[in-house]
Amino acid sequence: MMAPTTTPTHSSVSTLSPLPLSAYNPFTLHPFSTPKLFFPFIFWHHVITKHTMPTPHCFLTFSFLLLSCHLLKGQKDTDFGQAIDRKLLGLKKKEKLSHFKFYWHDLVSGRNPTSVSVVPPTLKLNTTTAFGLVNMIDNPLTLGPELSSKLVGKAQGFYASASQSEINLLMAMNLAFSEGKYNGSTITILGRNCVFHKVREMPVIGGSGLFRFARGYAEARTNWFDYKTGDATVEYNVYVMHY
Question: Domain for residue 1, yes or no?
Fold first, then answer.
């Protein structure tokens, strides 16, 4: 008597069926959040759990996904900006707050002025505020209010009259220090200076050397002003956050 023939059931034949479309959506996956990590895992997990060889359809899908990941990686590598470890720039310490006090001397008269007009005001405007005036400066910074006091640096940049209704200056200058450990380091100030106000506040927008990544503000108070010559001495108190 011949043994009856049996038709293989679904449980005795293993097939690799395509994954549902949602399985290929990187935004619906957990715990993986990127295609680079998720897709290889899904593919080989499906192969291992089914104990069979993948179909050509899955091979093509997997190859396409690997190519996409490679292209994405190449795009990231060619970016001109990237995050780096802050320690590479020596930013290992915590920020500290420093206070600097010195005197700024604006000398527009005499044989060797430190403040020179490079753009005169337009006469057609008929203004009393010298609107449009631009002065380049290389003003000395001293410890005391006297010009003969110890020199600690120079204020290099320019100021410009930026108001038609009052004497209001746009200040753009680097405080280039030459004293002690700050020699060669600079603090950059860019702000509004209403010269006849008792106290003027201007922001510190950066710096170099020991003042890399600096931020803070400066307070200016007029110490002395000569109406005849235009010379002035201004007390500066600068508060800087830096590393």
Answer: no
Q: Which two tokens stand for residue 31?
A: 């715990």
The answer to whether residue 181 scores a pLDDT higher than 80 is yes
**What's the rounded mean pLDDT across residues 227-239?**
97
pTM over 0.85: no
85, part of any domain: no
Residue 88 dihedral angles phi and psi, to the nearest 5°: -65, -25
- Determine whether 20 is exposed, middle or buried from the number of CB atoms within 10 Å of its CB (0-12, 13-18, 19+): exposed
226-230: list long-range contacts, CB under 8 Å, 24+ apart.
Answer: 229/108, 229/109, 229/110, 230/106, 230/108, 230/109
Q: What's the rounded Cα separation, in Å, for the pair 32 and 29?
A: 6
Count of beta carbons in the 10 Å neighbourhood of residue 234 = 21
Mean pLDDT of the chain: 81
Tokens (6 digits) for 186: 């600079």
Any domain includes 9: no
Single out the residue of 106, 242, 229 nearest to residue 171, CA to CA.
106
Q: Predicted confidence band at 20 (pLDDT cuts at 50, 70, 90)?
A: low
Same-domain pairing of 39 and 128: no
Is residue 101 one of the residues assigned to a domain?
Answer: yes
Whether 56 and 169 share a structural domain: no
Provide the number of structural domains found in the chain. Answer: 2
Distance, in Å, from the CA atom of 122 to the CA atom of 150, rounded to the nearest integer, reads 38
Distance of CA 242 to CAs 19, 101, 159, Å?
A: 55, 16, 25
25-37 tens-digit pLDDT? 544 444 444 444 4
